[in-house]
Specification:
264 residues, Rossmann fold, 5 strands, alpha/beta, single chain
Length: 264
């Protein structure tokens, strides 16, 4: 199974890149399935098979219905949930160190590909950047794309959502912890590409290189999804004060630049 995982900080551009790639007829965009990002939370229950199976199945059923169905209507049936989860989780193959864990995860996504008659799986949960060790163990044919964005613009976007840091002090801590952890883990995956949202939005050449990286034929019309007049690049110039902008850059610049020198 050919797999493409996209990651970033959240509000970094993973959505637009996934939509561009998913225009290819062989690609199925699972969106933010969170199947692997949230999976380790079940480790607290590993001592009790019944509790683990029920809790994990309930959790993933809610996740599938809430997240994937909004993107892929074919998942809107109980058979998908029952087959993808019950048939595997109940068989005690939910442990991360269990060799059958790879089978569980691959079958979860293969069911979607088969139902949609596609051959390439794409998933774009932002925090994929901090589970590269798991991704490397689970998938044999894996390409990973890390979408980088100016932290000041990320802050302008993320402060408006309930799940993100709401002030610059919290953001600075959150951003550095996430990006430093991702940097430590990036070498887990051989085929790891770093691109900036700014380059994706402004350069068809960069988009073409992304397609080449994942092995998909590029078509010029795929760039029609990009609204270059409403890209929110350097939105921080209008959305936050100069003092706040300078504070964020001063405290996030070091880790951002470590990533920036790696980008395409």
């Amino acid at each position: 199974m050919k797999t493409i995982f996209i990651g970033g900080t959240g509000r970094s551009g993973t959505s637009i890149l996934s939509k561009i790639l998913a225009q290819d007829s062989e690609v199925l965009n699972f969106g933010e399935s969170r199947f692997l990002v949230d999976f380790p939370t079940t480790k607290d229950y590993l001592d009790n098979e019944e509790i683990v199976s029920k809790k994990y199945m309930d959790y993933m059923q809610k996740g599938v219905r809430h997240g994937l169905m909004k993107i892929n209507p074919w998942i809107n049936n109980i058979e998908f949930t029952k087959n993808a989860l019950a048939a595997y989780a109940i068989k005690r193959i939910y442990k991360l160190n269990n060799p059958n864990f790879k089978e569980l995860v691959n079958n979860f996504y293969k069911m979607g590909l088969n139902a949609a008659n596609r051959s390439i799986m794409l998933e774009k949960t932002p925090h994929n950047i901090i589970i590269t060790d798991i991704l490397n163990r689970v998938f044999d044919d894996l390409k990973f794309i890390h979408v980088l964005r100016d932290p000041r613009d990320i802050f302008c976007s993320i402060k408006q959502v309930k799940w993100g840091p709401n002030n610059s002090d919290e953001f600075i801590v959150w951003y550095n912890e996430l990006m430093n952890k991702a940097y430590e883990m990036k070498d887990n995956i051989k085929d790891y590409l770093v691109v900036s949202l700014e380059d994706v939005v402004c350069s068809n050449i960069v988009i073409k290189e992304v397609f080449n990286f994942v092995g998909i034929k590029f078509k010029e019309e795929y760039t029609s999804l990009i609204n270059r007049n409403n890209s929110h690049i350097k939105r921080y110039l209008d959305d936050i004060s100069g003092d706040e902008s300078r504070k964020i850059w001063a405290n996030c610049r070091d880790i951002y630049m470590k990533w920036d020198i790696l980008k395409l």
